[in-house]
Design brief:
- There is one protein chain.
- This protein has 282 residues and is α/β, with parallel strands linked by helices.
- The protein has two domains: 172 residues, Rossmann fold, CATH 3.40.50.620; 92 residues, Pantoate--beta-alanine Ligase, Chain: A,domain 2, CATH 3.30.1300.10.
- It is 38% helix and 21% strand.
- Helix 2 links the parallel strand 2 and strand 3.
- The longest helix is centred in the middle third of the chain and has 16 residues.
- The protein is globular and about 55 Å long.
- The termini are far apart.
- The mean pLDDT is 98.
- The protein binds adenosine monophosphate.
- The site of adenosine monophosphate has 16 residues, from helix 2 and strand 5.
Length: 282
Amino acid sequence: MDIVRRILSMREIARKERESGRKIGFVPTMGSLHEGHLSLVRRVKELADIVVVSVFVNPKQFGAGEDLSQYPRDIKRDADLCIAEGVDYLFHPEPEEVYPDGHATIVEVEGLSRKLEGKSRPGHFRGVTTIVAKMLNIVHPHVAAFGQKDAQQAAIIQRLVKDLMIDVEVLVLPIVRDEDELALSSRNRFLTVEQRRAAGAIPRALQAARHVVAEGIRDPEEVVASAREVIEAEPLLKVDYVELVDPRDLNPVTAVEGEMLLVLAVYAGETRLLDNAEIRVS
Ligand code: AMP
């Protein structure tokens, strides 16, 4: 596996691979890789001839007072994991090269970016869509994989690719969970033993919502309340939001019918944890 540090080198490598007729698969990450990331790598490896993983802790998607400097970084370990998965190129550029002096262009998906996470983290998705657009321009993959763990991000990226007519197939792949069903996240390592135990209430809250829908509850507020209750029973957790939304526009549903997404953000101490579950009534 090659570790590629320069944008021009990455671009040149990708161009040559394409010209040789090879299909390029891409998994963009912020590193500190776990089984969730690796599940994306494995799927992409099945679909493409060449796998590129990027590791870039994108400063533009962190707000003031967020955990940019504390965000876990371990490129050596990430590289070892990528080698073990048969990744071909690990792209690990410097922030100074990605955002040189004079950088002035941002990419923003309107509407979707203002809801849910966007309300709590203003400017976050602008950072995400700007870096994803840059990465897709550099790597020019045939296929790029994202996790349903960040459901809103996935929806926004699908919109971005459609709107800017970027020539890439976007895959959104299932959430990988720990033994107690907590979604894997690079931020889980910040949790104390007690917080980690308490966080088990998050997937239980999603289950509770699914359960009340299966039992016939058809009032969206009751569904949301059933999930909220489970989290609020844990003194170490603090709800930021719990919403039952339409997966297409991320607006709260007015009726419990068809395909829905229960999305939530919860704090355990300073650590922000996201999760979601599809709920379907046919
Ligand atoms: P991150 O490094 O957190 O920016 O995540 C990089 C990619 O991995 C994103 O597309 C995430 O949605 C995805 N991802 C993160 N955690 C998981 C998980 N537990 N299961 C599946 N995909 C994940």
